[in-house]
Amino acid sequence: MKLDQELNQHGRDIIRTIEVVQSVTKLSTTAVDNFDSNGEELYTPPLNFSMVDNGIFRSGFPDTANFSFLKTLGLRSIVYLCPEPYPEHNMEFLKANRIQLFQFGIEGTKEPFVNIPEDTIREALKVVLDVRNHPLLIHCKRGKHRTGCLVGCLRKIQRWCLTSIFDEYQRFAAAKARVSDQRFMELFDASGFKDIPPSPCSCTKRR
């Protein structure tokens, strides 16, 4: 029964993401450089793109092929979780579209030598939770570990149960899922973030 409920929730999540992708691709009326052989405008989401919540998206590192799609989101901000400088062509895209960049440099280390900076995660969460920065895109390189940890901590603030938090993390990390990331999310203290309404998840439906 529990497995069926979680599978149903995963199905709803996938449908929700598809609906978002379909809807936002209809919003752009500006000319772009990417067209197919029939002259139709192309919209290519970044790797691991998904909707997290209203006004909050996640993905891997966007490239020039993704810029026309990102325009349809009407982004105000990008939360970048890598320490490397943002590429020049990405910066030009941000400036042209008046998108603010918030960089929180978290090293992409591998287990067992992992040290996720909690203070940095907390500062990034303040940006993510500020609706004045929405619509907002969170990304690292692949949209798996650093992005997954930040979103997982956001889910704790939204009062998701650990089962659903881990399910979401593993859906993006797949075979690359890290025990240390999940341990970090489990121990993360969300009590300092108050007045944040809970977000529906599969565990709330089981009550």
Automatic annotation (TrEMBL):
EC number from the UniProt entry: 3.6.1.52
Top-level taxon of origin: Eukaryota
Enzyme class: hydrolase
Keyword Hydrolase: yes
InterPro entries, per database record: PFA-DSPs, Prot-tyrosine_phosphatase-like, Siw14-like, Tyr_Pase_AS, TYR_PHOSPHATASE_DUAL_dom
Tyrosine-protein phosphatase domain location: 48-199
Record's keyword terms, sorted: Hydrolase
Record GO cellular component, one term: cytoplasm
Keyword Hydrolase: yes
Pfam family, one: Y_phosphatase2
Catalytic activity: 6-diphospho-1D-myo-inositol pentakisphosphate + H2O = 1D-myo-inositol hexakisphosphate + phosphate + H(+); 1,5-bis(diphospho)-1D-myo-inositol 2,3,4,6-tetrakisphosphate + H2O = 1-diphospho-1D-myo-inositol 2,3,4,5,6-pentakisphosphate + phosphate + 2 H(+); 3,5-bis(diphospho)-1D-myo-inositol 1,2,4,6-tetrakisphosphate + H2O = 3-diphospho-1D-myo-inositol 1,2,4,5,6-pentakisphosphate + phosphate + 2 H(+); 5-diphospho-1D-myo-inositol 1,2,3,4,6-pentakisphosphate + H2O = 1D-myo-inositol hexakisphosphate + phosphate + H(+)
GO molecular-function terms, A-Z: inositol-1,5-bisdiphosphate-2,3,4,6-tetrakisphosphate 5-diphosphatase activity; inositol-5-diphosphate-1,2,3,4,6-pentakisphosphate diphosphatase activity; phosphatase activity
PANTHER family named in the record: INOSITOL PHOSPHATASE SIW14, TYROSINE-PROTEIN PHOSPHATASE
Similarity field: Belongs to the protein-tyrosine phosphatase family. Atypical dual-specificity phosphatase Siw14-like subfamily.
Designated name of the protein: diphosphoinositol-polyphosphate diphosphatase
Source species of the chain: Lactuca sativa
Higher taxonomy: Eukaryota, Viridiplantae, Streptophyta, Embryophyta, Tracheophyta
